[in-house]
Amino acid sequence: MVKSINQLRPKFTTNADGSDAVLFMHELVGEEDGPTIGISAAIHGNENTGSQAILELFNLLKDMPIKGRILLLPVANPSAFAVNERYATIDKVDLNRQFPGNPRGTYSQQLAHALTQEFFNVIDVHIDLHSGTDRPTVDYVYIWNDEGLSRAFGSKLLYRPVENKQGTVFGGTTKSVTLDKRNIPVSVIELGGGILDQTPYIRRTVDGVLNMLRFKGAIPGDMAPQPKQIVVNELAGIRPSQGGWLEPLCPANGEVIKGGQLLGRVVSPYNFDVLEEIATPFENGVMIMQHLTRNLVQSGDYGFMVGNLDGATD
Ligand SMILES: [Zn+2]
C-alpha cells in the first residue's frame, strides 16, 4: 500500500502582502521502490480541468498499492489560477515559456526556477495536464518521446509535432527541463474546457492517467483496451480576426471536417452583422479544439484547432 503521504510546500519567495509564495505538492510514497512519476496541472492558470482531475486522482491513489513514488502538483501557477487567468497578474508572462527559470528574475521566472528544482528535476516521468479554458474545448494528446505512455491515456486523437516546423517548437516550456535536458518520458494532455459541466472530461482524465500509471507499472492492474487511435502530424490553430459572438458550425471534436466546410462565424452582438465566416484549412481535417457554445471572443482569441488527416497514421 502507500507507505506515506506527505504535503510538500517549499517556499520560493515572499509576496508583498507578507504571505509566503509556496509550491503545493503531494507525495505518495509506495512500499516498493520504483520511479517517481510527476503529474502536474494548471501551469496555465485558467486551465483547471486537470487540477480537478488531480484532486480526484489523489483520493483514489491514496488507497492503492503504489510502486515507486507519485508527486502531484495540482496547481502549478497558483496566482494565475486564483483569478482564472492564463498568466500570473504580477508579471503577465507565460510561465510555460520561462523554464528553467531564474531565482532573481520576474515572479514567473522565480516560480519556474522553483518548479524546476523541486518538481521537474526530481521526477522520472512527467504527465502534464492542460485543457481548454472556460471558453474553448480541446481534446488531444501530444506524442513526444514515449508513444506508449501517450497512447495509454486512451484518447482517439494524438499529435506528433514535427520538430523545427514553425509553430510547433517553443522555447522555455516544461519540455526544455524534462525532455530536452533530462530526456525523461513526457506526455502532455489537452482535454476539456468550455462553458459546460467538466465531469465527463475529469472522468476521462482520471481513467486515462490511471491507465498511464499502469503502463509504467506504478499501480497494479491490466491496461484498459484502447480505442482506435489516429496520429496527426499537422495541426492548424485558427483565430477569429474579428471580435464578437463566435458561433460554432463545425462537427464535434474527434469528427471529420471536409474542405470548404465552415468552422464557425463571428456575428456582431451590436448590429447582428456576420463579421467573418471561418473555413477549415484542410481538405481532410479532424476537429481538435472548438467553442461548443456561442461565446464572446476578442479578435485574435483562441478559436479552433483542426488536425490534417492527410499524412495521419494509426
Ligand atoms: Zn496550457
Describe the overall structure.
- Keywords: Hydrolase, Metal-binding, Zinc.
- It comes from Devosia subaequoris.
- InterPro entries: AstE_AspA_cat, N-alpha-Ac-DABA-like, N-alpha-Ac-DABA_deacetylase.
- About 20% of the residues lie in helices and about 30% in strands.
- The protein is of the alpha+beta class.
- It has 2 domains: about 1-230, Aminopeptidase (3-Layer(aba) Sandwich); about 235-310, Beta Barrel (OB fold (Dihydrolipoamide Acetyltransferase, E2P)), CATH 2.40.50.
- Strands 1, 4, 5, 6, 7, 8, 9, 10, 11, 12, 14, 17 and 19 form a 13-stranded mixed sheet that branches. It has a 4-stranded antiparallel sheet with strand order 16-15-13-18, with no helix packed on it. A two-stranded antiparallel ribbon has the order 2-3.
- The mean pLDDT is about 95.
- Bound molecules: zinc ion (ZN).
